[in-house]
Structure formats: C-alpha cells, structure tokens
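Lab meeting, action items carried over

1. Structure of the two-component assembly. Owner: GW. Status: complete.
Input record:
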Amino acid sequence: MNMLFDGLPRRALVALGLFLAVLLVAPWLVNAYILSLLVVVLYFAYAGQAWNVMMGFAGQLSLGHSLYVGLGAYAAAMMFTKFGVNPWVGLLVAVATTTAMGAIIGFLAFRFGIGGVYFAILTIAFSEFVRVGFDHWPWLGGSGGLFLPVANLSSNDLLNLRGAPIMFYYVMLAMCVAALGFCRWLLGSRLGYYWQAIRENEDAAAALGIPVFRYKMIAVMLSSAMTAFAGVFYAFYYNNLFPEQIFSMGRSIEIILGPIIGGLGTLIGPIVGAFVLTPLADGLSELLQWAGIDVPGVKQVFYGICLLLVVVFLPNGIWPMLARRLGLEREH
Amino acid sequence: MMPSKDAARGAKRRDFLKTAGAVTLGAATLGAPAIVRAQAKTLNIGLLLPKSGTLAFLGQSCQKGADIAAEVCAQLGYKVNIKLMSADFESNVDLSRARAEKLISEGAHMLVGPFDSGAAGAIAQVAEQKGVPFVINIAAAPQITEQGYKFVFRNFFTAGQLVGNGLKLMKELFVATKTQPKSAVYMHVNDTFGMANKGAIDKLYPGANLGMELKASIAYDPAARDLSVEVAKAKATGADVLMVTTRINDAILLVREMVKQRWEPMGIINPGSPGLYEQQFFATLGKYSDYCITNVAWSDPKSAVTDMAKAAWAKKFPKDPWEGNILNAGFTIEAIMICADAFQRAGSTDGKALADALRKTKIEKKIMLGGPIEFDAKGQNNNIISACLQNRSGWARVVLPSDKAERPPIFPMPGWGNRGA
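Predicted assembly:
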C-alpha cells in the first residue's frame, strides 16, 4: 500500500482524495444527462489507462485498441446471450481472448522485428480483419448486430450488470481506481522500470540485459487484458454490438486521445484527458446551441482547434504542466 | 526585470487554462438540470439525428423533413403546438444515449429518430427507463422491437420485411410485364448493410418462388475504384437479371462497367437499397440511369399528404429536390405526425398516457406507401409496403403497385444502344 503513495506530496494526496470524494458523490448532485456523460468520461479514462500501459509505459504504439474492446465485448456478450453466463465470469473469457490476441500480435511483431509505425499498422490491420470476420459471423449476429436482452428492472443487478446508469457509473469508477492503483504499482515495479528503459532506448535496454521481447510481450498482453473490461462494460451498458462500430478505427482514436492530451506515460494523464475531452466536446455543443449556431460539423471544427491548441502549447499533455503548477509532482 | 521566456509561456498557459476552465464551467452550467415544463398544448419532441459524422447527409435530410413536419401537421388539422428540440449524436452510438438523456432532462416529452439501429438500441433503453415514448423514424434491426419495450414504437421496416417486400415486388413486376426471366446473379457491397441484405436474400429467396435460378452472389468493396472483374464475372454467368445491393458510388461504377462491357441483361433490380434512385446516379449516368429498378419504401404519389409535404418542402428548400429526400424526410415527417396524433388524443404530455395513445394509433392520411399507421403489441408498424420504382427520364417513378403507379413498368429494359442521344 505504501508503495502506491510513496513520494507523493501531502498536497497531492489531499487533491486525489478530494477528487475521489467528488466522484463518489457526483451521481447524487447531477442530472441524468451529466451522469451519462460521466459514465462516458470514466469509460474513456479506463480504456485510456489500459492503452497507456502499452504506449505510455512501454512505448509500443497501438492504433487498433478497438480490437480488444470489441473482442472483450463480444466474448462476454456471447457468454451471456448464448450460455447464460454472467458478465463477471464472461470477463474471464474476454480477458483470455484479448490476451491471446495481444500475444499473437505481439509475437508476430516483436519476433520479426516489426516496430514503430509498422507495429501500429499491424494493430490496425488486425482490428480490421477481425471486424470483417465478425461482420460475416452470423452466429453472433454478423453485420446485423448482436443485441443483449434488456429488462427494465426496478433494482440494480450487479451480478448480471443489469440496471440503472448509476450502477454502471460506480462500476466504472471502481475499475478506474483499480486500474490507477495497478498501473501505479506496475510503474514502481521492476517491470515498469524495464518498460521505461525499453521506451526510451530499446537497443540500450537490450545492451543492459533486459529481455526486450519478453517485456514488450508482457506490455501488450497486459494492456489487451485490461482493455477487455472496457469491452465488457460497453456491451452491457449499451446492450447492442455492431462490428462496424465497435471495431472501428474511430473508436481506437477516441481511446488514445485521452492519454495523449492528458499526458502520455503518466498515471493521471489518461484521467485528465478523459475529463477534458468529453466535457469539452459537449460543452462546445452547448455553447454553440446557446449562441444559436446550428450548423452541423461546426462543433467538430472547434473541437479540432481546441485539440490543436493543447498539442501546440502543451506538447507533453495537460497533466505534467498542471502537476508542476499545483505542486503535485512526486518527490524524488 | 523582464519576465523569462518560460514565465511568459507560463502566463499564457495560465490564461489558456483559465479560459478553458471558464468555457467548460459555463458549458456544464448550461447543460445542468434545466427542466422545462411544457405548456399544456405544446409537445416537446426531442429529435435525435446523426447530423455530422459518417451519416451526416442522411441525418440532415431527416432534419429537413422534421423542419416542415409542423406545417404538414397543421395542414392535416392537428391542433397541437410542436416544439422541436434537436440533438446531433454525430453518428456515434456512444453519444446517442447521452443526447437522449439530455433532451429528456431539458423537457422532451417524446423522442424521434435516429436513422441508425445501434443508436436506436441505445436510445430505446433510455426511453424505457424514463418512460418517455420513442418513435423510430428509420432503423431496421428487428431486435429493437423484440425486447419487450413499452415505450418504443417503430414506423419503419425491419431488415427482413424490406427484402421480403422487395422480392415480392419482383414477382409482381414479372407478372405485370408478362416476362419471366430464368436466372439471376446477385452483386452486393460487402459492408454491414450489404452483408445484412445478402443474409436476408439467402434466407428469403428460396421461399419467394420467383422462378429464377440464382446463379451466383458476387461481393465487392463499396470503396472499389474498378468493378470490371466483378462485372465480367457476373456477365459470364449468363444470368437474365442482375440483382444488386449498392451504395451510390459503386452503383455508378457498376452501370458504367456494364455499358463498357456491353452486358445487357433484362433488367437491373435492386430489392431494397439506395444507389439506383439517387440524384447523383441520374446526374452522372444520364440516359444509362434509366430503366433501373429499385424496390424500396417510397411516398405515395397519389396521397394528398405527399402533395402537402412536397409543397412545404419546395417552399423551404427550393434548391434541394424532394425526390432526393423522400425516404428520409417522409419517414421523419410521419414520425412527428404520429407524435402529434398521439398527443392530440392523449391530451397530456405524460409519458404513459402518450404511450397508451400511441398503441391505439390509426393514421390513414399519410405519406409513405402502405396501410394505415398502427402498431402491434411490440410497437412495430407492419403495414408499410415497398414501391417498385423505375428510373424514367432522370426521375424515379412508381411503377408498382399498379393502383399507385405513375407509369407502367418497362421490362425487359432497352439495350444501352437503344436509348437515343
């Protein structure tokens, strides 16, 4: 436990505690719309954290993370709809499936020396051909989609992940906290140091005796395993899955935007990114509506400009600057 | 002392953050609970459409239909005030749910939309949880009305009904023209929509008894730049009829290639997809666009309500022909008519009262072809029928069913070289 908070200034601990307290009471203070936005924010914070393990920590760029979201979603949804298995058990199948897929991609890439942009292209390629595969798999609905049965229950059923948005909010919040703690532990472990060494200079890391292949494989498999939960959550929150949507390149980009804007390779960056991007997008919608501008696509232009400003003025992301300004950086 | 470069940059960052914070806070405040209770005689309809993103063109077409719907309702004698509250879900299913929550928290009494099955599935859950009736204008996934929902109503085909109607009309076409082709080849795009259609055809074709052997199915990429190989393959089957499931660009490529390869089957028939009846198809192919056939939901050319909608459209959107928007706008106008009708009968904006009224809907005066709008126990309208459209002189004309036909059908189609200048 100590290791999680080692070196954190008191101010950072207080800020973290306050932030968590606000998140815990938030559902009781906001309306249904804001709550549904918060669910989306937490979903992207979690998925971004999972992606960050692979890219932020180990330096392996994946542009096809929607593959793991989609596989996780389909695996758990399949277990639920076809065999009546509850989503938590389905999660185990989802994790096994995504980890295996991560291992295949990682092995193919790292065994044959594929790295950098070529590795990124490989991840896109896998995501695309899995999408096409699911499009042509009628047992899971094919391109017509897989629909999970929906029941309008008066109470929340956590075991089967059936219930109101507030239940999904707390589930996602718990997973975000768990992911944050896990990533903190990873970063502080030998594994984390090896990853960072590989990220900074793979040849130098190898020269120092770090088994680069093995540790890159671990990064890919851990990241894909973590992402499986985002997929399970998606399946049971939205209750319908279409290969074209869940495996789309756009979804992969959405996942990686948070960590990039928030601060790549940092622990809090993916969370900050998610909390900036989703409210920014919706805030812009509100602002434009308030200003009486109803031109489709204008929001996307403004959104793009905002992202551009962040990238230009904060190339390391928002969190490193914020942490420095607020004195929340770790003491070394 | 001059401030350092870093300090100056820091000040800018602070300014930027302050501004960004203010914008976000302001936006959040605007989006905060602002529950607006409607006047007794005003129905707030939350309209959820993909007005940007990949489905933008279609969503905007639906929006235009919604923009003239109030006028059409007034002309039909509905004594209700309609307030439209629009939300763009950006062709993103994830956002559709949040947008539905937003519209409801801002006071929407009913929801209409969304031209997408995934989004319809997500919105339906919100509607059901909140007890707010949701009238689907366009979304074909059959599962949406199979979930036992009490507040979800669909005035559109399911995917199976669409293809089933399309195949039935093909049979009627052969009877009406006293021509019986012996064989067909099926070419289709291999995207989600195309594969769904292929699946439905595989399932329904054997039972349709069209008297034509289906010689082959040939899939192709909707983004293909060249269909010469696929067309040559289809031509080589020697089939009498080419059945297609297309999008717009590939439909153009396909016919161009057929002209180039001088393949002249008896007809090109589309049992239920876009492509062959679109403005861009006519504009690009000119005389070669003629005689292609599409079986799809369409407006009733002999309905007074269609005339009203057409006139209102021409007044509001003079540069955008109604003919290019019939399916999207027609079903959206009808969805709003359904809401107005239910509200008038319910006399209340209470969700349950509106849903009860929706279950008793029976609207005879309408735009789209088919029987009266009414919903079964699952909330599905099963009375919609397809029209057999044939391209004639640059316009899609209804040629079947015969009592609604604007022209008699021509089948087999004239060869490419027999179409004048």
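2. GW to write a short summary for the group page. Key points so far: The mean pLDDT of chain A is 90. Chain A has one domain: 2-326.
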